[in-house]
Write a structure and sequence with these properties.
It contains eleven helices and 20 strands. With 362 residues, the chain is an alpha+beta fold.
Length: 362
Amino acid sequence: MALTVEKNVSLAQYTTLHVGGVADYFYRLTDEGELPALVHFAKEKKVPITVLGGGSNVLIADGQLARLVLKNELRGKKVEVDANGVVQYTVAAGEAWDDFVLETVEKGLTGLENLSGIPGTIGAAPIQNINAYGAEVGAAIASVRVFDTETMTFRELTKEACQFAYRESVFKTSAGAHCIVTAVTFILTPAGTTDLSYRSASQSIQKYLQEQHITTPSVSDIRNAILHVRGNIGMLRGQYCSAGSFFKNTIISATDFTHVEAIVETRFLEQHKKFSPWYWALPDGRVKISTAFLMECTPYNKHTYGKNRWRGVVGLSPLHSLSIVTEVGATANDVDAFVQEIIFSVKNIFSLTIETEVNFIS
């Protein structure tokens, strides 16, 4: 199979942070059948393969990258409905995530509406186990089709094999790092119960529904509410040059939380009152803390760096602390240095190491 692989392609144009270096080799993947030949090409050139979807959850290093970057542009959907009306949707990995969510909502299907407005592609969804407003995509996934670059075969991974956890999956471990996602199968139900379990300090979803006089929200109402909320916090594509939430929320033991709570009560009562609830007890006894709240207790908060720019080109969205934004002239090194400053500041105050959600590619 003849492949037309591009050389020396700037990757900044393909990321939402608008930073990043130059790939030695670049290919637009439109046919999964080309993957075996592409793997052979990469082995011949002695470079690793990196798959790029919507470019919304990555920080790509500056300079020349000795990689074959595959821009995932696989397209297509297959729909099957059983006798009970349960819908099985198989969607190619290169399809736009939010376009698919909109399609399911318009069909009155429940399961993905809380994940509305998230940028990126279908293929990234299981890798990240995208999570928002009380929902995670793993709950709606039946299986994931992958190409295994080690065995050179296509495989169908069950939900269990994907090992979904909070913003984690097998694909982010050594056991799944050699798998390229080509399609995802979802199980969705019609006229199901909408999920209103999510609670935030602003209770913004509930407020929107109340303002619209909606007492029994449909899946379409929930999507509209979430798009409204995401727009208000600058988390819709195109509002800022951002990778979305740069950090995960922080999960710690109950013992460690006691230490954090004591610091908050001693030093940050104003933030405690303003941003409560900022933590949630988990079923396993651990506690999930809003990393945005932790950042609000440091010099690296949206009030300071939402207005100003560190090194003049990197800062935070004025609407959401977790969203790192860039200006013209920013580099990946600028972003990374700013991230390290934030991590150090939180650790210095709370003795906690916050984790990034964004994937670093060097």
